[in-house]
Design a protein that fits this description.
The structure holds two protein chains of two kinds. By secondary structure, chain A is of the alpha/beta class. Chain A has 27 helices and eight strands. In chain A, helix 5 runs parallel beside helix 7 (about 140-155), helix 12 (about 270-280) packs across helix 13 and helix 25 (about 495-505) crosses helix 26. Chain B has helices at about 1-5, 25-35, 40-45, 50-55, 80-90, 105-110, 115-135, 150-155, 175-190, 195-205, 210-220, 230-240, 245-260, 265-275, 285-290, 295-315, 330-340; strands at about 10-15, 55-60, 65-70, 95-100, 140-145, 280, 315-320, 325. In chain B, strand 2 (about 55-60) and strand 3 form a beta hairpin. The chains are: A alpha/beta, B mainly alpha.
Chain lengths: ~550, ~350
Amino acid sequence: MASPANSAPPVVTIYNPANLRKEELIRGFVARQPLLDRLLDDLRHANPGTAPQHHLLVGQRGQGKTTLLRRLAFAVEDDPGLSATWMPLVFPEEQYNVASLGDFWLNCVDALSDALDRAGDHDASQALDERVERVPVDRAGRSAAALQLLIEEAGRLNRRFILLVDNLDIVLDRLDREQEWTFRRVISQEPAIQFIGASSRVMEALYQYDRAFYDFFQVHELKGLDDSETFAMLRRLGGDSGEAEVDKLIQERPGRIRALRLLAGGNPRTLVLLFRVLTEARDGDVQRDIEQLLDLYTPLYKARFEELPAQAQQLVDAMAIHWDPLTAADLTELLRPLSVNQVSAQLKRLEDLGVVEKAPWFGEKKTAFQITERFFNIWYLMRASRRVRRRLLWLVKFLEAWFDREERATTATLSIVQHAKQLVTDERDTQFLLAQSLTLSSKWHEASPLLEQLARGDSEFPSMGLFRAIVETGQIADAVAILERTGADQRWRPLYEALRAAGAGSPDYLNRVAPEVRTVAMEILREIAPRLFSAYSVV
Amino acid sequence: MAEDAGVHGFNPVFIDVSDCSDEMRFVQRLYGAILENDPGDLLWNHIKDSWLGKTIGRVQKVGGAGFSLEFKATDTGWARLGEELAGALSKLDGRWLIQVDELPVFVLKLLNQDESAQRARVREFLYWLRRLRLEFGDVRWLLAGSIGLDTVTTRLNIADSINDLRIQTLGAFDAATADALLAALASEYHKDLSATVRRYIVKRTGWPAPFYLQLIFHELRDIEGPVARAHVDRAVENLLGPHHRNYFDYWRQRLFEELGKPEADYAATLLNTCCRAPEGVTRIVLSHSLASVIAQPEAREEKLRYLLDILHNDGYLAEDSRRWRFRSPLLREYWIRRVAPPEESHG
């Protein structure tokens, strides 16, 4: 087991984990501990005489790939048993200098030389550098000689090398098919090399049957953290002394954290920053928390956006402001006079850069696109016009109310009488109840003006019972029109989208909606149209 | 089935609804079949003076073999005729077995007229049919189709409209039954088909569904003298040729009919990936093959689970030792040759 986080506060960086000092990185590493343990366990049990099982981490930016690779290197170095057998080789995050397999093996030798130098074996490092100078320049000779150097060093040191290669896609994209097969042959036969790579996308080379790396790596997809993983991570970040405080925060305001986790897409890097925000302002609200988090991200996101060419910036701007997934044709409409071909070409480029991604769609054959890093989309919306920013803030309020409502409901079960009293004394809730009763009594003509009045009010959060009644009695189209007329389609957007999904007769309708809205809209749909979900259990 | 039904005291009724274009045609066909099979004309005598009876013309068939029925044009929607049919079922004497073939094809036809508007219409029709099944205990129903009705209803989120049905999948024969079929065909057509060759046919079929066994056999019918293994190889090769495309292409077509886009495209991507690997494909490779169209791992996993259920249920794929492969090697071969993109760009 790696050492747990100690009581000192974590140091976090949103830019480059490679810039963190060792103890800082270890202290902040909490999200991917189970996977780290598993990889270390595999190393401990690897058979010395045979080539090991190689691994690949796949995950979007910020999911912790680079940090995990670095943490693994430290864990091996710090474990006497492991370090007697294994020697981690660390590379620059992007290996843009690779034009052939020989270049890659030379990078491995350079990484080894750096590692020897860091370990104080300067003579060995210098000797290795001199041997590198004598490696032939022709492609075939270069590859064989560089690999030979690496294997000889493994023998001399009586260690096996762990190649921790970030952005493997950049390396593989630069190798031709023949080199891919050579690469595979070497690492599948050579016991001295353990390969642990990382990539921000699933490469075709992993699933095309005729490709060398088809079904070759053990792939670990790093997903966003869910609620319980987030709570666990925050507790670990709290450390020994802060755990009780974090526990209290989680118990008192879980809705605040859940709403923030949703908006951050479960991204561990963002959630580590969230810890800082939460502990600095224990009584804050979600809007304030988000604003503070976004401030921390501004330099990174601004720089990333400004790196894009002008036309790509136009696309990203339109997609981020639109917020929901959209098709290439819809995007072209927004970006006239750009042609659909120009838009498609830019989309492809942005997809390759990992800025946009394809998403499932509903009802048509077209593919939809969305901004990959959802928190970047949130940041962009917050910096847009007041009108656009308001759409996001309404969602923030809705999410907070939604998750608070669940907390209230849990508390209320402890005191049903108290809850009932609250219901009858709260005029707004009474009106919702009345509208619900009227709807169920086939008096929609009386219920609908009540709904209209409620939807025009300043209520942050509507009662679900009324909308379930609306779905059951088939008044969806009318209710949707009322929400649109009163502007509640924006203020209560998750509810509005859930109603539209109920009208379309399919939860898949919500594929048309931004993921931040979709998650809660799906929960609402389960409440107001449960029949749509019972159907799924049959097959 | 119809013959056996009589032995067990059922009046059998069979209709094929694949060519019915709307609910009215469906109900008329069903009504007509029941009236024609009602031995004592009890039902006809009961309804002939009613509104319903007045909408039906009963014409003596040429040669005197029973009647044919003609439904007169009426402005009344199918719902009224449907209600009348429900009433009529209650008047039937004895036990009835109603067999409806290609019901899913009819349902998809309703749906494909305009998916968004017709969803509610399909829902109404299937709930009506369910009510008929539940209300009349003496009437048993056998609904059949080459497309899974359960898949269609799940896609439309109305799976509860068929939750009273017991789903029975007709798969391939076991080796002994397949051999018996081939032996019976050889005997009927006087072909010299040794046990060794019969076993080889079953082996080449891989998944010995009767349809494919018969296809191969009929390719062999023109062989003079004893049939050899080389003849079987040639017959299989011939079946996979472009002029026999129709034997297999319905598997591709029905994906689109059954699932609609974009799910059918996703399913085709999975099949394109599976067809390349004779040893089968792991689930994670299948998930990765969808990554270019569904980037988010959670959404991708949800879609993969849904599609694999369907592809397994409908006989495209089978899972063995955690690998997914084509259930029928013949279909896999067809898919490689005629459907999947060339290897360099597949996916």
